[in-house]
Amino acid sequence: MTIPEKSVVIKVIEEKYNCSLSNIKRKQIMFQGVSNGQKIVTCTPSSKKKTTR
Fold first, then answer.
1. At 17, phi and psi to the nearest 5?
2. pTM for the complete prediction?
């Protein structure tokens, strides 16, 4: 199973909830925003890329 890019996930959420999400300080994969007066917090998918020698 592939992990979607963070930018794609954020774009889909922003369009669905008509909001703008921004990074939470010191959290690389967490974003927050406000939609219809309610706060949205999301944790995006992430994966560390491993290189082989």
1. -105, 5
2. 0.75
